[in-house]
Amino acid sequence: MTTYNLSFAGSGRVAGSLCRNLFRAGNRIRQIVSPDRKEGMLLARDCQASWSPDLEFDNPNDVIIVAVPDHELSGVLSAMKCHEASIVAHTAGSFGLDVFPERIRKKGVFYPLQTFSKGRDTDLRDLPFILESSQPGTGELLKSLAESVGGKPYFINEENRRMLHLAAVFVNNFSNFMLTAGKEITMRAGASFELLFPLIKETFSKALENGPENSQTGPAVRNDRNTIEKHMDLLSFSPELQNIYREVSESIITYYNNRNL
Amino acid sequence: MTTYNLSFAGSGRVAGSLCRNLFRAGNRIRQIVSPDRKEGMLLARDCQASWSPDLEFDNPNDVIIVAVPDHELSGVLSAMKCHEASIVAHTAGSFGLDVFPERIRKKGVFYPLQTFSKGRDTDLRDLPFILESSQPGTGELLKSLAESVGGKPYFINEENRRMLHLAAVFVNNFSNFMLTAGKEITMRAGASFELLFPLIKETFSKALENGPENSQTGPAVRNDRNTIEKHMDLLSFSPELQNIYREVSESIITYYNNRNL
Predict the structure, then answer these.
(1) Count of Cβ atoms closer than 10 Å to residue B210 Cβ
(2) 73-92 in chain B: CB under 8 A from chain A
(3) Taking CB atoms and an 8 Å cut-off, how many pairs form between chains A and B?
(4) Which of A111, A120, A234, B143 is deepest in the core (most CB within 10 A)?
(5) Mutate to test the interface with B, among A111, A158, A177, A257 (most CBs of B within 10 A)
(6) Cα-flanking dihedrals φ and ψ of residue B119, to 5°?
(7) Which among A179, A190, A248 is the nearest to B212, CB-wise?
(8) What is the ipTM of this complex?
(9) Whole-number Å distance between alpha carbons of A162 and A144
(10) What gap in Å lies between CA B196 and CA B192, rounded to an integer?
(11) Domain end position, chosen among B156, B174, B192
């Protein structure tokens, strides 16, 4: 298997997980560039790389993976200095190739469709990597990188990748917040969140097996206004939770009304 | 282990799962009463019971479990005829003991904190059963029934049980709908929902391990208005999804603003 010289801009959750996995897959990690000295040096040490706060990449054979917060991406790409033979790829699902400055010729998107956590070793096997590139050679290389960590590469254009990133917000960010809301309410009932674990596990395994659209239960899908009103009363301690309850319930009612037409 | 004579009012998802599990645990199932002849007879056959559409239970030693849709519960309890020595328990998380008519003396709540599906054999081991009863003997019996299928019994009063039921709506009904929304958007990106499976699995295992309130990522928790606006534009095809996106994002922003105070 071909291995590569890699460098990273960033040492956060995404950079850390990708870098460690790519290192374990046999790639050489050369430079970690990040403003966070502690995280950057830790990651560099783990992957036998060097750390620096300066966005200068000197090896023309490197693939530079830019995994930084979305709002810093454009600034980092503009500020970084690298050889024009280097391939530069960012990991942001909601940005395209147009975020790169003109002078970077070999550019790509290397977007792992996953949620990453600090201190959590995320398994990348079978993980979809959504790829885009400015030219075939770059694309092949990104594909090979994704495969080296057991991932599944997909070439998907910018518009559809942005949609996938949005879908990820719903299934990850929003469903996670529903669990947070459920935990708050459970604690208000004087009970432990663990009481809900079997329900949560079944919710997700059922949705994946039967499709979430076929797994919907509860007062909203039955349009049971009586129970919905009682729940709204119970939520009087939190206008925010009431807003969510109302909006999501109305959406469920509308969705299943239209579906049954 | 003590076993019981059981009868059921209802033959739907909850009744079917409880009845089959209680039968397998060694209890005798006598009568299945339900208006649905096909489902009722099928369940009766599986559990060596008789089926009837008439709400008459003649054995004084029976425990009668009433597992019917919420909006039918009060009507079924009023209409049913049974010996006053029989114990009657309903399975509805959002109803209390006051839904029973006066003449039923031994009454209880036997609420399994789970989502049940037709044709899906739900595992009841370690499942919390939220119990309430009108007198100690009844409570002991319901506890023993829950334990016979491997469940974990909890005596929780009506107010807190209603809260738990509401929490279940958030973690099950609402998070499931977020997956449905994500699936719709994924299909709009021309991609298969399966691309999101690793993300969905990680979302839930992370939330259970680290707590959902510590697992929140995405544009809303960062208060990244730029990405939120871009997502709202992408959702212009669906005012309902826009409403959910706006409301849930605002709730996440508010929640984490307050938390950081």
Answers:
(1) 14
(2) none
(3) 307
(4) A111
(5) A177
(6) 70, 10
(7) A179
(8) 0.95
(9) 23
(10) 8
(11) B156
Residue B36, pLDDT score? 95
Contact criterion met (CB < 8 Å) for A177 and B255: yes
Contacts (Cβ under 8 Å, ≥6 apart) of A39: A11, A12, A16
pLDDT above 80 for B260: no
Spatial CA neighbour of A177 closest among B131, B194, B178: B178
CATH number of B104's domain: 3.40.50.720
* Domains contained in chain A, number: 2
Greatest Cα pair distance, chain A, in angstroms, is: 67
Q: Are residues B143 and B18 in the same domain?
A: yes
**Residues B221-233 pLDDT 10s:** 999 999 999 999 9
Nearest to A204 among B185, B198, B204 (CB): B204
Cα–Cα nearest to B67, from B106, B26, B36, B25: B36
Last residue of a domain, one of B156, B184, B199: B156
DSSP state for residue A170 in the 8-state scheme: I
pLDDT in tens, A30-52: 999 999 999 999 999 999 999 99
In terms of domains, do B11 and B126 share one?
yes
Radius of gyration of chain A (CA): 22
CATH number at residue B221: 1.10.1040.20
Joined tokens for residue A238: 């939190």
Residues B142 and B176 in one domain: no
Q: A230 and A147: one domain?
A: no
Inspect the interface and report whether the beta carbons of B212 and A183 lie closer than 8 Å: yes
- Across the range B110-130, mean pLDDT stands at 92
Look at residue B235 in the predicted model and tell me its pLDDT: 97
Same structural domain for residues A172 and A254? yes
- Dump pLDDT digits (tens) for B33-62: 999 999 999 999 999 999 999 999 988 888
Which residues form the domain of A99? 5-156
B138 and B169 share a domain?
A: no
Residues A40 and A151 in one domain: yes
CA distance B182 to A252: 13
Q: How far apart are CA B15 and CA B17, in angstroms?
A: 6
Residue B158 has pLDDT above 60, yes or no: yes
Residues A54 and A132 in one domain: yes
Q: Phi-psi region for residue B133, left (φ > 0), alpha (ψ -120 to 50) or beta?
A: beta
Mean pLDDT of B87-98: 96
CA pair distance A241, A248, nearest whole angstrom = 10
Residue in B114, B212, B254 closest to A180 by CB: B212
